[in-house]
């Protein structure tokens, strides 16, 4: 049973989600402290109450009680300046210059369901019975400040979501210097920190290391969640594996600058905080104004990382992603980027589309280069009208030619950007992010439009909508190809310049909300030079993301494995591309490329007209196979079996909800002399069911497949090999 219970006598809140409990206490003098997060307990009696000791150099807010210090107390939303010397979740500055606050519990309210977060992406419910929400109001009378902490528990998920809203209830202006979304003070430090660092072409590589004393964490100050770090961290017990052990995971539903850190203090407590990066951030909060922080999704699993991921996948597929495509099978696409780059015309596009039709592909995506005078990456971003020399008969005619090949038509945009060589920039040079008297550093020859401005957002909505409503478009790829520098806005006053990056995100979310709701039949895929903005914030608006610009099958094993820690398989765009691969120049077979790409949302990104007859046959087989199994792959449960970060082999499997069907993918990177004979034990099947392993024509019990396993065929030869077992209930 899910629910939120407040024990009036003990002043203890007990929140329970599906199989998770969370507890807090209102201590004497109304401090809100953290007691527990973990496996569900039926009732919370506080068997392990906080202990108070007089600790040297941990000062005492109340001189009568030398055992009480905030420095030694686990808190829900710690602040700066009165005895806690660890990093606060929150800090504001008053007009008198002081940066100290003293928040105490004021009141609380328990509500059915879950409210929307104003202007920000968040998980949601469709029926109020799916969740319960607790709002706790903290106040600081001196500062004229109220902070509302919001906690939601879900009946069907081991998830608690949190956010904070900061309200100025006084008469002076306040300046927010730090406003993280959530804080947990664990009363222990025996954890390992897991996170997903990366780079362009190498996103979300799994890192795991024991916590050390002091601060450790990740952040982005790039104006995007970034390729370099993902807004996800988890604390796992040392013995936690894919299938066993506890893990506490945090994922921020936000696409901009973030901070996620763990601080191990002198007494072996661990403080985890996550939210908007306080670096180069501040927010002016006038009287009566409220600042809402983004949401954090906190997942607890006592069945390892596998269960953690399946919880995120399920929640995000069903209660983060929205729109027509949330529950719909996604089409197999062909994208012309690596086939033609900027060098195409309508005839070439039609040829590729016609070839795609023969091969069973369903959607043609026209990538970069169709607009303005865009023949390379030096011009035209911002000029969202057709490139007349390249496509003299217009986009509509081209879309119709593609549709005549029985393919849907999709189009690339990069709406947040402007080229210096563009009509838009010539007309509005102040519409980009910039700082007076400083150069505007370009990256890929482009500047960033100032989406903190309403006029800029409106103009972009107008331009993009004009194309979407005049051309039969079923899919949009929304790209973003640089990070922010010289961050400033021409419209904001000097004391609000540090709001620009967050205001940009709010503007972006508004633009995405307007465009995606105005065109509900369009499938939107986000992209930022591949997976530079693969985050839960964007998934709220666009249910799939281009996982990486690196399409090499071997690199993709790690990228897709790492991405799967948090994000659902159906959200991962993955394409078969040409060999030698354009990013790493590796040659892999069409089968290997197909098996890796169809472990996600399958697409192709190569010149189909140049395929050999054998390759065409292989692609036909792949698209037919994918269509037969895509519901299982896109909406089934995902189990990781072998990690590419731990060895030469990778394996994963998909099993449908009814546990009647499964696909097992095995990949081996290099051939090895004296190679071990490998067997694979399956997961997620029903131990009581009988299954036929179609490739072998043999029937086995689900228990045998799980405990005894299947042997990997020993005649797989050479480097870069893959093998797929098809399993069905008999
Ligand atoms: C970066 C994307 O990730 C690529 O797929 C492609 O769309 C290029 N941009 C086009 O400029």
Strand fraction equals 25-35%
CATH architecture of the largest domain: Distorted Sandwich
Structural class: alpha+beta
CATH topology of the largest domain: Beta-galactosidase, Chain A, domain 5
List the ions, cofactors and other small molecules found in this model: (2R,3S,4R,5S)-2-(hydroxymethyl)piperidine-3,4,5-triol
Structural features, described:
With 730 residues, the protein is an alpha+beta fold. The protein folds into three domains: 3-305, Distorted Sandwich (Beta-galactosidase, Chain A, domain 5), CATH 2.70.98; 333-625, Aldolase class I (TIM Barrel); 642-729, Golgi alpha-mannosidase II (Immunoglobulin-like, Sandwich), CATH 2.60.40. Helix content is 19%, strand content 30%. It is built from twelve helices and 38 strands. The strands form seven sheets. Strands 6, 7, 8, 9, 11, 12, 14, 15, 19 and 20 form a ten-stranded antiparallel β-sheet that branches. Strands 21-22-23-26-27-28-29-30 form an eight-stranded parallel barrel, surrounded by five helices. The radius of gyration is 27 Å and the shape is globular. The two termini are 35 Å apart. The model has no long low-confidence stretch (mean pLDDT 97). (2R,3S,4R,5S)-2-(hydroxymethyl)piperidine-3,4,5-triol binds next to loops.
């Amino acid at each position: 049973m899910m629910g939120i219970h407040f024990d009036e006598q003990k002043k203890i809140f007990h929140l329970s989600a599906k199989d998770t409990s969370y507890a807090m206490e209102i201590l004497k003098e109304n401090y809100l402290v953290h007691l527990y997060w973990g496996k569900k307990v039926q009732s919370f009696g506080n068997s392990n109450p906080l202990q108070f000791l007089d600790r040297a150099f941990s000062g005492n807010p109340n001189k009568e009680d030398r055992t009480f210090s905030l420095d030694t107390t686990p808190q829900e939303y710690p602040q700066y300046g009165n005895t806690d010397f660890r990093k606060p979740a929150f800090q504001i500055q008053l007009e008198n210059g002081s940066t100290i606050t003293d928040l105490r519990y004021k009141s609380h309210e328990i509500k059915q369901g879950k409210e929307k977060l104003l202007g920000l992406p968040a998980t949601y419910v469709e029926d109020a019975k799916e969740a319960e929400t607790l709002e706790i109001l903290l106040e600081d009378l001196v500062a004229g400040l109220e902070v509302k902490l919001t906690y939601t528990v879900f009946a069907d998920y081991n998830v608690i979501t949190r956010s904070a809203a900061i309200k100025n209830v006084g008469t002076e202006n306040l300046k927010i210097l730090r406003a993280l979304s959530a804080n947990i003070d664990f009363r222990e430090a025996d954890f390992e920190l897991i996170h997903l660092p990366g780079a362009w072409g190498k996103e979300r590589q799994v890192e795991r290391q024991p916590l050390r004393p002091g601060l450790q964490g990740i952040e982005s100050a790039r104006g995007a969640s970034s390729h370099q770090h993902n807004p996800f961290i988890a604390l796992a017990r040392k013995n936690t594996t894919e299938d066993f052990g506890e893990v506490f995971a945090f994922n921020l539903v936000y696409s901009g600058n973030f901070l996620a850190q763990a601080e191990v203090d002198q007494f072996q407590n661990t403080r985890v905080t996550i939210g908007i990066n306080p670096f180069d951030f501040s927010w002016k909060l006038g009287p009566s104004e409220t600042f809402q922080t983004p949401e954090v999704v906190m997942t607890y699993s006592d069945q390892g990382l596998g269960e953690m991921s399946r919880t995120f996948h399920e929640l995000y597929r069903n209660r983060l992603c929205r729109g027509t495509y949330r529950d719909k099978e996604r089409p197999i696409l062909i994208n012309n980027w690596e086939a033609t780059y900027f060098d195409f015309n309508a005839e070439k596009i039609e040829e590729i589309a016609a070839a795609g039709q023969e091969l069973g592909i369903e959607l043609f995506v026209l990538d970069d280069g169709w607009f303005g005078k865009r023949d390379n990456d030096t011009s035209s971003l911002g000029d969202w009208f057709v490139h007349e020399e390249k496509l003299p008969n217009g986009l509509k005619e081209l879309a119709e030619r593609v549709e005549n090949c029985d393919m849907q038509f999709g189009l690339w945009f990069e709406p947040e950007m402007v080229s210096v060589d563009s009509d838009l920039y010539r007309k509005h040079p102040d519409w980009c992010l910039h700082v007076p008297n400083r150069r505007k550093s370009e990256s890929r020859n482009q500047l960033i439009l100032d989406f903190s401005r309403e006029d800029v957002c409106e103009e972009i909505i107008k331009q993009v909508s004009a194309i979407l409503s005049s051309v039969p478009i079923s899919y949009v790829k929304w790209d973003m190809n640089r990070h922010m520098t010289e961050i400033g806005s021409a419209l904001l006053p000097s004391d609000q310049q540090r709001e620009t990056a967050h205001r940009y995100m709010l503007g972006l979310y508004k633009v995405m909300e307007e465009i995606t709701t105005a065109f509900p039949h369009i499938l939107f895929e986000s992209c930022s030079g591949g997976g530079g903005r693969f985050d839960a914030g964007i998934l709220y608006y666009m249910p799939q993301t281009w996982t990486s610009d690196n399409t090499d099958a071997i690199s993709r094993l790690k990228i897709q494995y790492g991405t799967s820690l948090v994000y659902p398989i159906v959200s991962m765009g993955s394409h078969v591309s040409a060999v030698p691969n354009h990013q790493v120049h590796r040659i892999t077979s069409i089968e290997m490329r197909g098996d890796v790409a169809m472990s996600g949302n399958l697409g192709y990104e190569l010149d189909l007209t140049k395929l050999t007859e054998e390759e065409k046959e292989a692609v036909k087989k792949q698209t037919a196979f994918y269509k037969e199994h895509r519901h299982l792959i896109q909406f089934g449960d995902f189990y990781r079996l072998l990690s590419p970060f731990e060895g030469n082999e990778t394996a994963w499997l998909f099993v449908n909800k009814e546990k009647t069907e499964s696909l097992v993918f095995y990949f081996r990177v290099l051939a090895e002399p004296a190679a071990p004979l490998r067997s694979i034990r399956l997961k997620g099947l029903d131990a009581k069911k009988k299954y036929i392993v179609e490739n072998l024509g043999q029937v086995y019990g689900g228990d045998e497949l799980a405990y005894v396993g299947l042997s990997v065929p020993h005649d797989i030869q050479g480097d870069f090999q893959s093998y797929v077992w098809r399993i069905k209930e008999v």
